[in-house]
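input
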Amino acid sequence: MEYIELTGKTVTLLPLSEEHFEGFYEASKPIEIWDWLVTKIYSREDAVAYMNQGLRAKEEEEQYPFVVIENGTGKIIGSTSYRNIQFDNESLEIGSTWYHPSKWRTAVNTECKYLLLQHAFETWKLGRIEFRTDEQNTRSRAAILRLGAVEEGKLRREKRLTDGTMRNTMVYSILNDEWPSVKQRLHDFLSQHEK
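output
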């Protein structure tokens, strides 16, 4: 898959690579990041496994993981991915997203999603972008709806968590004909952050 670098005013998304490991691991240390994510990083070994899994999936063209760099500091502040990439079906999922808690409720997530959606719809010409999250993760659900995504429904007992429990997964999507209004919505949010 081609090299993708996505740059905004606040963040730059670079393809995940082994050279990013130390910054990636440092950003992943706050334990509250992992409350609702299926794969968790609680140790250096977990971070190595997480990164290796992402790089393997990228080689197989199933996933395209990024590190999120804060433009002002040059520091890695999180990670996000294109997942379940299906060019034949003109679809993919944006997921495996996490940020250092100091960046929660800032422009970071909005700009990351703007950049990812813009590339998927305008460069790759895809027709459907999906988001999935734990039914109990109210913060993530609210953030996805805030983007302008449509809630499609619930997949019951869809995924086993590391503690052995099964999660219900909420599914959302944005279609290509909805992108212009979503793009304007995100542009407006980002403009408000600049004031």
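quick obs: The chain has one domain: 6-194.
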